[in-house]
Amino acid sequence: MRKCPSHTVAAIPSLLAGLVAGTAAAQDFNVTITSGVLRDGALHLGESVSINDSEVVFVLDDSPGFSLPCGAGNGCAIPGGGPDDVYPTFGGVSAYANDQGSFRAYLATGTGGGTGVQVENQINLIWTRDFVRVDETTPFEFVVNPGLLRLVDGGGHGDTELHASWKLIAKVEGITQFEVHKRLHGKGSLSSKRRVIAKDFCAMNYQMSHDTGPIVGTWECLLGEAEVPGREIFDPDTGQVIGGEPGYTLYSYIGAQYKTPAYRGVLDLSGIGVGETFTVTYQILADAVAYGPDTLAESMSGDPLKYSGGVMVEYGDYGELLRITDFTIDAEGRSHVQFPSNPEYYYLLCSGDEVDGVEPPLVIKAGVDGHGELVDPRSADQQQRSFYLVKRVRSSVPLDSDGDGIDDVYELNHSAILDPLNAGDALADSDDDGRNARQEYVEGTDPETADQGPTTGGLYPAAVFAVGEGGELEAADLNNDGVIDLVTFNGALNVTLGNSDGSFAPPHLVAIADAGSSGDITLERLDGDGFPDVVLADEFNNRVEILFGNGLGGFTSNAKHDLGVSPRRVVLARVNDDPHLDIISVNNNARTLSILLGNGDGTFQTPTSLDTEYRPTDVVAALLNNDAHPDLSVTLETGGSRVAVFLSNGDGTHAAKVMYPTGASPQRVVAGDVNGDGIVDIITANRTSDGVSVLLGNGNGTLQGKADYATGDNPAGMLVTDLDGDTDLDLIVAHLAAGHHAVLWNGGNGTFTAGSPIHTASGNQNCLLFDVDRDGMRDVVSLINSGGGGAIVSRGLPGNRFDTRQQFNFDPGQFSPRDFEVADVNADGRPDILVSNQSQNVVDILIGQAGGGFLAMSSVPVGAQVEGLAVGRLNAGQSLDLAVVTQRPDFLPGSSSNRLHVLYGDGVGGFTAGPVMDLHAQPDDVLMGDFDGNGLTDLLVAFGSSGELQLFLNSGADFFVRPQHELGGTSYERIVGDFDGDGVDDVGAAVFVSGPAVIKILSGSSAGTLTETEVVTPLNNGSVSSLDWADLDGDGRRDMVAVVFQAGAESLVIYPGGSGGDFGGEQLVLGGYAGDIMVADVNGDGLPDLLNGADVRLAASGGGYRAVQSYHMGSASLAPKLADLNGDGRPDLVTADDLGDAVTVLLHR
User: Fold this and answer.
1) Hey, how many other C-beta atoms are within 10 angstroms of the C-beta on 1035?
2) What digits encode the pLDDT tens for the residues 552-597?
3) Which domains does the chain have, with CATH numbers?
4) Strand pairing partners for 501?
5) First to last CA, the chain
6) What does the alpha-carbon distance between residue 688 and residue 24 come to, in Å, rounded to a whole number?
7) Three-state SS at 1093
């Protein structure tokens, strides 16, 4: 009789922390995971931890190697259990946590050593995050999901101890408020025991040794049994039956399990005031012990838990409503609407059948001084509407009513050729200079006069230049050449000198002896030589260091001032009444400011301390009471979130602080007269309330109550400046956790309205606004603080806009793109974008609009775990159809199916379900081609992990399934094309096998089969990471283009295409080339250029390639694709951004 292995399982209940009562503070959540597997007397620690901005995934694999008691395959039922009780087939420990209060941990015993050797798995997960109390009444809820403890003993190990346990603890401010401890204990083996003994043993020896807390579970016994038949005894001489033994029942194993249901609880927030920060900690501890050699391990997993909360405020698309003063109908039956008008605004006429059904504007007109009039341009029979609305928008606020990529004010200023409600005019070249109106708008040239476009600035918006990593980006003209240079700090200074054409030279390093790895820097001229110097707040060494600039981009350390405390930030300002700049260091942990008065020659006096009582984050010096002495305004992130005002005594000392409430956890502060009354006002950027607070000054050193404005996730540095030339100070706000700078337009009275965001990258602590390319318009420079560091230059455009990526957003957390295609699915002549969205298990469709804009359509449901998709004509109709593959993950047995879905297009952007075909394994992509030469589009499903391809041949009415083609190894890179010119598509696949990686060429045939005709082996045992098929050597035949990893480095190589579809030996194209490869003519010169994501290498006319041009498309998760999105004949870049929950586009410039 086969014996079953002994194993224990602790399926710890996942927990979802409700964030209803507390808004999560913007700082990163903290997760500590300690885990190990003890077997053969040795401790094996976990090493696989995946971390990004929002989640932590931990896996310690301890896979078993044994014969399952129920045979091979998943889903082996445990006798005596329910339908969900299955024998585990995967071993190890796993844990998951995210920043939204959701985490879980699962573990079970893994592979054992010899007989009776103990196997123990343990895990300790601690989750911590700060929250802000939002009100007095809303509870802080959490949910503990169902848990499981299971012991199963297969026998043969004697009187051994087995147990599985989990404990969950919840704390607020370090005080335990909730605790549950469950421990299932078992003892002994019952193999070969009879029924009555077994039942008694199960009840007596599998017990809950700990069962505390408010969650009550259910215990049950597990019994696996086998019948032993009776036996007759024969006389050896006569052959007659002389006796016998009766049959009986044996137990193949015995065990028990304890299941807990879901539980909802509430944490007590008594004693925590509204707006105050509090810390919540959850801890999971668990272990599982069993004995080898036949032990198992199990990892259970489910979809990540999510939560939804917060407030969403929607404003109108076109600004505030305006009172209509008169309404008349002329002799032709047209409606005339009059209203008060102002030249600082432009006005829109809208109409509708009811108040809630306003249609897009009918006409847009610039304002005049006095009374304005708008006339309904439609025919009289179309004007029988019940009402009209007039809306006004400040001229400085960007608005693009027709979605053609040109601001409405710009079009009104060129009304002879442009109409803000006609998208088609953006593509017209009225002055016959070879550039359409939209391009001239972007380039800042006149669309009504033939002129030459700019020669610099790159092919696409959002150009990226290397600057080196650092916490903050600073800018100044370091070498007095009239061009802005950039500096970051990351243990050393990274200096990037600007070029006169708006580009930047590669960064160079300026070492700083004994400097810590992190700190804050600021640039200013200190010693009178005219060159910018650096002041460094060195957190590690508790000091401020002065470095003098040499006028060449270099710096020399001049002095180090010990503070005795750790400075977080350093600010230069005039603190006393002399004209010299002084240093103020913000010491967050010490709750002080250190003030070093300047002597005017680059030296500073001994620091003095100013007690702030609570943790300071930033300081600004400004005249608040008109006594000519600069006063200090300090943001405090504790003590109720306030800004403290220290009025100056004029001698470097200050009066006692007066505090004013701000938004939650203020991090930065700036000063300026935002309401035009001649009095300085204060603005703070508030980390956890995701906005800014404006506190108007009274002129006597006091401040008025705050007005709050939303900006984005974790705002940081701000810039107060007049962006639109109306003399009112506007705001630009950078963000640490949002990939944009927010723009707030000043209404002239100190109130602000949100403008279009400037798309950058997350991780920006400050705002830089300089005329980088010296075209007379200021540009935004922002930091990419990842991947080695870089700076994005978003060039200034007419109409107070900035040249950056277009972004089409999805609801946060609801967008997980796996694949996308660009195709015209509604037959309007404009490309659309289709994305397989695994978060919602749908295909999202963005319908292309004139000018390169997009409009979201209803999503198309497909099935669980969507993966790859392809677009093409799959039936007799002229509409484009969809093919999508879905997969069942290995860690979710029995959830979703491995399937191929066909959806037929209706010609207007919608799709209906067609055939659904089951697949034998997990697919990762589907490709299209004519693989049998009958003129119909067939489907090729690729199975990456199992290394297989399978054809689904299109008969016009159905699909004929061909057998799987085994590649002999895993394969995730494939290309389709007619390599040999026989009219039937072929396949190239990069295959990873135990030996050298290869590229296999599979030829298609009229019989609908794939036959391996060639194997291309990279040199030096290289492996292939990306493939394309293009004529790179200019001989008129397409080549196999590949990125290969050889001898520790990646390179771009080609295998030249032959006349019969074969490929020649490997030829090097570019060394040091890493990433993806796409070959296309990007700049229209007829030469093949190289694209690696959003990095472009243009082919040089004499051979070779020019220096790489890099562009920023957000935190794109999928490789970009090229398509002419706005109909200007130039290739635009489009991709899907998982972390940014958006589709992003770079329109060709």
Assistant:
1) 10
2) 888 988 899 999 898 999 999 999 888 899 999 999 999 999 999 9
3) 472-600 (2.130.10.10), 612-759 (2.130.10.10), 1019-1148 (no CATH)
4) none
5) 75
6) 7
7) coil
Cβ neighbours of 234 (radius 10 Å): 12
Q: Return the bridge partners of 644, or none.
A: 634, 659
Cβ–Cβ under 8 Å, residues 1076 and 1093: yes
Query: pLDDT, tens digit, for every residue of 425-452?
Result: 877 888 887 767 776 776 566 788 886 5
CB distance 402 to 420 below 8 Å:
yes
Three-state SS for 899? Answer: strand
- pLDDT tens digit string along 490-531? 888 988 888 777 778 778 888 888 888 888 999 999 988 889
**pLDDT tier, 703 (very low <50, low <70, confident <90, very high otherwise):** very high
84: tokens are 């969900």
Helix (H, G, I), strand (E, B) or coil at 813: coil
Tokens at 365, concatenated: 């007109």
Q: Is the dihedral of CA 194, 200, 201, 206 positive or negative?
A: positive
pLDDT at 660: 97
- Per the CB < 8 A criterion, the answer to whether 35 and 93 are in contact is yes
- Taken as a whole, the chain contains a residue count of 1149
Characterize 307-342 residue by residue with b for buried, 16 or more Cβ atoms within 10 angstroms of its Cβ, and e for exposed. beeeeeeeeeebbeebebeeeeeeeeeebebebebb
* Residue 469 CA, distance from chain mean position: 19
Cα–Cα distance for residue pair 648/569, rounded to 1 Å: 21
How many helices (H) and strands (E) the chain has is answered by: 3, 89
Other CB atoms within a 10 A radius of the CB of residue 924 amount to: 18
Cα separation, 714 vs 635, whole angstroms: 15
Closest CA to 975 of 1092, 1075, 1070, 1079: 1079
pLDDT at 177 over 70: yes
- Label residue 174 left, alpha or beta by phi (over 0 means left) and psi (-120 to 50 means alpha): left
Type of residue at 793: V
Q: Which amino acid is at 775?
A: D
pLDDT at 806: 85
Half-sphere exposure (Cβ direction) of 476: Cα atoms closer than 13 Å: 20
- pLDDT tens column, 447-485: 888 865 544 457 888 888 888 777 788 999 998 878 899
What type of residue sits at position 964? Q
**Three-state helix/strand/coil letters over 16-35:** EECCCCEEECCCCCEEEEEE
